[in-house]
Specification:
The chain has 191 residues and is of the alpha+beta class. Helix content is 31%, strand content 18%. It is built from four helices and five strands, in the order H-E-H-E-E-H-E-E-H. It has helices at 10-27, 54-68, 100-114, 170-180; strands spanning 38-46, 73-76, 91-98, 134-139, 159-165.
């Protein structure tokens, strides 16, 4: 296969053409290799009744694979917790880690298709940064993704999405995600 036919995601081209010059100017970082970049996106869905309801686990795995385009991993309990009636090795959720092409494709679909479908949406919260350049937020319904057929779901499930960047501060990660088009609410300016 020649390099001319290789597919390059639209959002990655946007990163190279628009985001890099924006970040150089905004963050005043002259070394292009030091600029923050998106490294991976992790999507996690917790399933409390997975041990008792095998069908819920199977449906969640199929829904997450439709959303992400990749087969998810079933997360198992590492230790027994009597309050939750969980034994060691019980399934407690599913997650998928997206990198490179699939990561940019998912983020592009999330920004342009899924967020307009979120009810009463006025931006993602700006409090989800962890101090090390990563951003976390939750979605309450999986039906905002067009890949999910509303008539075929058994239960509304939320999910947590983590965007891991190479940014060393929250400001670097914030500027990176804003320049990529992630609809995060404006941060309040400190006086």
């Amino acid at each position: 296969m020649s390099n001319q036919n290789k597919y390059i995601p639209r959002l990655f081209l946007h990163y190279k053409d628009t985001t890099i010059p924006y970040l150089v100017k905004k963050l005043k970082i002259s070394n292009v290799n030091r600029l923050p970049r998106l490294e991976k996106i992790v999507i996690n869905i917790g399933i409390g009744d997975a041990r008792d309801n095998a069908n819920a686990l199977k449906n969640t795995v199929s829904e997450l694979s439709l959303i992400s385009g990749q087969k998810p991993v079933v997360a198992q309990s590492k230790k027994p917790i009597s309050n939750f009636k969980t034994r060691k090795g019980d399934p407690v959720g599913v997650f998928v880690t997206l990198r490179r092409t699939q990561m940019y494709e998912f983020l592009d679909r999330f920004i342009s298709v899924a967020t307009p479908r979120i009810r009463d949406f006025n931006g993602l919260p700006n409090k989800g940064f962890d101090g090390m350049g990563n951003y976390n937020f939750g979605i309450t319904e999986q039906v905002v993704f067009p890949e999910i057929n509303y008539d075929k779901i058994d239960q509304i499930r939320g999910m947590n999405i983590t965007m891991v960047t190479s940014g060393q501060t929250d400001e670097e990660a914030y500027q990176l995600l804003i320049s990529l088009g992630v609809p995060i609410k404006q941060k309040k300016e400190k006086n």
